[in-house]
C-alpha cells in the first residue's frame, strides 16, 4: 500500500483516493518553425507555470473501469459543459496510458477521476494538459508505480506537447514540439492578468492559420527557430518591463485573425496601464504583464469593469504537478 493514498467511505466500501494539482501555463515566448512532415511544428517556447491550477482526485476502483467527470466537491471556475467527459479527456487518456505502460492489470486497476478546473478551456493555457499531468501524478501514487518525475514527464510527452511542462512546472525552455524541456531561472514572481475569451480556439486550426499566412507571404517564414534569450534573461532578472518588451508569440497574428475581437481587449489592457498584452499560446486567452501584484489586481478590476470579463490576476512561476 502506498503512503499517499487516503481512505474514504462511499456507502459500505472504503475507497482509496489521491489528489494532485497541476498548473496551467502561459508562453512568454513562442517561436514556431515550419510545418514538419508529421503535422507538428518545431517550437522554441519559454513556458511559465502560473497560479491557476487544476485539481484531480483519483478514487480507486477494483473493477478496472476508468471514468472521468467534474469533481462533486469543488466548484470549477470554468464551464464544465465545455469539457469532453469521456475517453477523449486528457486525464482519462493519462490514466489509460499509465496503466498500460506499467503493465498493471486492466481488470483490477480502475479509477474514477474527479476534475476541478480553473484554467479556461481551449484557451491556450494548457488546462487539459494540466489535467493529464495531475492525473498521471495521482494515478501513479494510487497504483504505487514508483515512477519518478522524469519518468512521468516522458510518458506525458505521449499525451500532448504541453503535458510534460505541466508535470515539471516552474519556468522552462521547450524545444522540439515543446516537450524537450530545460528549466530556466526565474527568482521572483512575475505578475500577470489573464483574460479568458468567450469561446475557445482549436490549437491545430491556429497552427494551420499560421502556415497559411506564411504561405501567402503575409508573415515571414523562418527556416528554423531560436530561443528568445531576452525573455530568458528578463525572467532571471525578474524584470517585468524587460520581459514585457521582449515577449513574442508567432501564434498571435493567426489567433487574432481567427478571433478579431481580441484586438479590442488587447488595446483596452494597454489603455489601463498593462506593460504589454499578448495572446497566450494559441489563444484566445490574453495575458497582460503588470509591474507588481497590486498593479495586477488593479488591472484585473479595470478590465472586468470595462468588459464584464472575469480577468484573473496570476503569478508565476509556480511548481509543477504534485500531490496535495
Ligand atoms: C500552442 C501550445 C503552446 O504551448 O499550447 P496551447 O496554446 O494549445 O495551450 C502548444 O504548442 C500546443 O500544445 P498541445 O495543446 O499539448 O498540443 P498537442 O495536443 O500535442 O497537438 C495538437 C495539435 O497542435 C499542432 N501542434 C502542436 C504542437 C506543436 N509543436 N506543433 C503543432 O503543430 C498539431 O497540429 C497537433 O496535432
Ligand atoms: N481535461 C480536459 N480539459 C479541457 N479540455 C480537454 C480536456 N481533455 C480534452 N480536452 C479537449 O482539448 C481541447 C483543448 O483543451 P485545453 O487544454 O483546455 O486548451 P489549450 O490546448 O488551448 O490550452 C478542448 O477543446 C477539449 O476538446
TrEMBL record:
<comment type="function">
    <text>Catalyzes the phosphorylation of the position 2 hydroxy group of 4-diphosphocytidyl-2C-methyl-D-erythritol.</text>
</comment>
<feature type="binding site">
    <location>
        <begin position="120"/>
        <end position="130"/>
    </location>
    <ligand>
        <name>ATP</name>
    </ligand>
</feature>
<keyword id="KW-0418">Kinase</keyword>
<dbReference type="InterPro" id="IPR014721">
    <property type="entry name" value="Ribsml_uS5_D2-typ_fold_subgr"/>
</dbReference>
<comment type="similarity">
    <text>Belongs to the GHMP kinase family. IspE subfamily.</text>
</comment>
<feature type="domain" description="GHMP kinase N-terminal">
    <location>
        <begin position="89"/>
        <end position="170"/>
    </location>
</feature>
<protein>
    <recommendedName>
        <fullName>4-diphosphocytidyl-2-C-methyl-D-erythritol kinase</fullName>
        <ecNumber>2.7.1.148</ecNumber>
    </recommendedName>
</protein>
<dbReference type="InterPro" id="IPR013750">
    <property type="entry name" value="GHMP_kinase_C_dom"/>
</dbReference>
<feature type="domain" description="GHMP kinase C-terminal">
    <location>
        <begin position="237"/>
        <end position="305"/>
    </location>
</feature>
<keyword id="KW-0547">Nucleotide-binding</keyword>
<keyword id="KW-0808">Transferase</keyword>
<comment type="pathway">
    <text>Isoprenoid biosynthesis; isopentenyl diphosphate biosynthesis via DXP pathway; isopentenyl diphosphate from 1-deoxy-D-xylulose 5-phosphate: step 3/6.</text>
</comment>
<dbReference type="Pfam" id="PF00288">
    <property type="entry name" value="GHMP_kinases_N"/>
</dbReference>
<feature type="active site">
    <location>
        <position position="162"/>
    </location>
</feature>
<dbReference type="InterPro" id="IPR036554">
    <property type="entry name" value="GHMP_kinase_C_sf"/>
</dbReference>
<dbReference type="InterPro" id="IPR020568">
    <property type="entry name" value="Ribosomal_Su5_D2-typ_SF"/>
</dbReference>
<dbReference type="Pfam" id="PF08544">
    <property type="entry name" value="GHMP_kinases_C"/>
</dbReference>
<dbReference type="GO" id="GO:0050515">
    <property type="term" value="F:4-(cytidine 5'-diphospho)-2-C-methyl-D-erythritol kinase activity"/>
</dbReference>
<keyword id="KW-0067">ATP-binding</keyword>
<feature type="active site">
    <location>
        <position position="25"/>
    </location>
</feature>
<dbReference type="InterPro" id="IPR006204">
    <property type="entry name" value="GHMP_kinase_N_dom"/>
</dbReference>
<dbReference type="InterPro" id="IPR004424">
    <property type="entry name" value="IspE"/>
</dbReference>
<keyword id="KW-0414">Isoprene biosynthesis</keyword>
Amino acid at each position: 500500500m502506498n503512503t499517499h493514498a487516503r481512505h474514504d467511505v462511499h456507502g459500505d466500501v472504503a475507497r482509496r483516493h489521491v489528489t494532485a494539482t497541476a498548473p496551467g501555463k502561459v508562453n512568454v515566448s513562442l517561436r514556431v518553425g515550419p510545418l514538419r512532415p508529421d503535422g507538428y511544428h518545431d517550437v522554441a517556447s519559454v513556458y511559465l507555470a502560473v497560479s491557476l491550477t487544476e485539481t484531480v482526485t483519483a478514487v480507486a476502483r477494483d473493477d478496472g473501469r476508468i471514468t472521468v467527470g467534474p469533481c462533486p466537491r469543488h466548484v470549477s471556475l470554468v464551464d464544465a459543459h465545455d469539457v469532453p467527459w469521456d475517453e477523449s479527456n486528457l486525464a482519462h487518456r493519462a490514466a489509460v496510458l499509465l496503466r498500460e505502460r506499467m503493465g498493471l492489470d486492466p481488470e483490477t486497476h480502475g479509477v474514477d477521476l474527479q476534475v476541478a478546473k480553473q484554467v479556461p478551456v481551449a484557451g491556450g493555457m494548457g488546462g487539459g494538459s494540466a489535467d493529464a499531468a495531475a492525473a498521471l501524478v495521482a494515478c501513479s501514487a494510487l497504483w504505487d508505480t514508483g515512477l519518478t518525475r522524469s519518468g512521468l514527464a516522458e510518458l506525458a510527452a505521449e499525451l500532448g506537447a504541453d503535458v510534460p511542462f505541466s508535470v515539471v512546472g516552474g519556468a522552462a525552455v521547450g524545444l522540439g514540439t515543446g516537450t524537450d524541456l530545460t528549466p530556466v531561472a526565474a527568482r521572483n514572481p512575475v505578475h500577470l492578468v489573464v483574460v479568458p475569451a468567450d469561446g475557445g480556439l482549436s490549437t491545430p486550426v491556429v497552427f494551420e492559420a499560421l502556415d497559411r499566412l506564411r504561405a501567402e507571404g503575409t508573415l515571414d517564414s523562418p527556416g528554423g527557430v531560436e530561443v528568445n534569450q531576452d525573455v530568458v534573461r528578463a525572467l532571471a532578472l525578474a524584470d517585468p518591463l524587460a520581459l514585457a518588451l521582449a515577449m513574442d508569440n508567432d501564434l498571435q497574428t493567426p489567433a487574432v485573425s481567427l478571433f478579431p475581437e481580441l484586438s479590442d481587449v488587447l488595446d483596452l489592457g494597454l489603455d489601463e496601464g498593462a506593460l504589454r498584452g499578448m495572446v497566450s499560446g494559441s489563444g484566445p486567452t490574453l495575458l497582460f504583464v503588470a509591474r507588481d501584484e497590486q498593479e495586477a489586481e488593479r488591472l484585473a478590476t479595470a478590465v472586468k469593469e470595462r468588459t464584464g470579463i472575469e480577468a484573473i490576476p496570476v503569478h508565476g512561476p509556480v511548481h509543477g504537478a504534485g500531490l496535495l
